[in-house]
Amino acid sequence: MEHLQNENANCPLPPLRFRNGAFRIMVVGDLHEQYDLSDELDRLKTADSMRLLWTAAETLRPDLIVYAGDQGKDDDEEKMRAIIRRITAPAKEYDIPYAVVFGNHDPECAIPKARQLELYREEYGNFYTFDGAPGVTGCGNCLVPVKDGAGERDILNLWFVDSLNLCEDREVSYYDWLREDQIAWYKDTAKRIKDARGGLPPALWFMHIPVREEYRLLKKARLWEYPYSVKAFGKRRGRYVPRDPSIGYLGEDPACAEVNSGIFDAWKEVGDVRGAFFGHDHMNEFAGEVDGILLAQCKTAGFHNYTDGCNAGVRLITVDEARPEKIETHMVHFKELGLKSGSLGPIQRNFTDRQVINIRIASVAAGAIAVAAGAAALVWRRK
Question: What pTM was estimated for this model as a whole?
Answer without folding.
Answer: 0.89
